[in-house]
């Protein structure tokens, strides 16, 4: 028996129950419609409950995949598990940007797997489909290029990316800048930290109008640091 009293995510249980009720109601309405005009063939309507469950599954699959691919990596403080970063980026998107699009959220947790692990774009395409792969592709810097070139390309290209990719870029930068305030990566001096803030400001400027909450939060953290 499921212990609904002690569930970790009570709202999820409630949402699921609501969805199931809605699903049952919808089925009843659909069967009423059919009785009224049998001859008219209705277009296929996606059932909300099915799509919502598929969305959850896509997102959880992305979390599972990213956790396994990043499992041996640490952040640059040499202590924090790397996976904290992509999960934190997805959480910024839901919590602060109010973005609930499953493709964007799945791409957010996967945004570093191609750049920083042996994962290929082909795998992402096969496992997660074209929409997620498009965003992950736009979040993947070419590590074969020199660092200065990679940084320049972000300023040049991010403004041309899809809305979904821009959301991930902004949340990524916000996480990294807050992380820099929290703890300086090993080997970084004050100058390098400031340069990262200034460069981030230039990258973000190319994505104006993407999401107000993210841009305000970024302005806050950057202005505080560079004041
Ligand atoms: N603030 C912070 N960043 C860390 C830490 N550990 C790893 N990083 C990653 O380091 C990158 C920034 O460091 P840089 O020296 O400028 O760039 P590089 O690693 O790509 O050469 C970011 O990668 P990125 O995701 O590719 O972002 P971005 O360079 O595109 O912003 C960030 O996610 C940490 O402990 N603190």
From TrEMBL:
Its cofactor is Mn(2+). It is an enzyme of class 3 (hydrolase). SUPFAM superfamilies: HD-domain/PDEase-like (SSF109604). The lineage of its organism: Eukaryota, Metazoa, Ecdysozoa, Nematoda, Chromadorea. The keyword Chloroplast does not apply. Belongs to the MESH1 family. InterPro entries: HD/PDEase_dom (IPR003607), HD_domain (IPR006674), MESH1 (IPR052194). Pfam families: HD_4. This is Guanosine-3',5'-bis(diphosphate) 3'-pyrophosphohydrolase MESH1. It comes from Caenorhabditis japonica. GO terms for molecular function: guanosine-3',5'-bis(diphosphate) 3'-diphosphatase activity; metal ion binding. Keywords: Hydrolase, Manganese, Metal-binding.
């Amino acid at each position: 028996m499921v212990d609904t009293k002690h569930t970790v995510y009570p709202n999820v249980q409630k949402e699921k129950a609501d969805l199931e009720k809605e699903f049952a109601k919808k089925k009843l309405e659909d069967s009423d419609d059919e009785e009224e005009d049998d001859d008219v063939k209705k277009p296929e309507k996606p059932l909300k409950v099915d799509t919502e469950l598929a969305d959850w599954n896509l997102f959880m699959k992305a979390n599972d995949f990213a956790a396994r691919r990043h499992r041996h990596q640490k952040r640059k403080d040499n202590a924090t598990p790397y996976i904290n970063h992509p999960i934190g980026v997805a959480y910024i998107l839901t919590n602060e940007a109010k973005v609930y699009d499953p493709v964007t959220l799945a791409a957010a947790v996967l945004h570093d797997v191609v750049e920083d692990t042996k994962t290929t774009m082909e795998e992402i395409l096969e496992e997660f489909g074209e929409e997620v792969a498009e965003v992950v592709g736009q979040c993947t810097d070419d590590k074969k290029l020199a660092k200065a070139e990679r940084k320049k390309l972000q300023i040049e290209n991010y403004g041309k990316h899809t809305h979904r990719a821009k959301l991930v870029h902004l949340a990524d930068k916000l996480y990294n800048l807050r992380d820099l305030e929290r703890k300086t990566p090993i080997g970084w001096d004050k100058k390098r930290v400031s340069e990262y803030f200034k460069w981030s400001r230039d990258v973000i400027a190319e994505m104006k109008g993407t999401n107000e909450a993210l841009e305000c939060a970024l302005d806050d953290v950057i202005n505080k640091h560079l004041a």
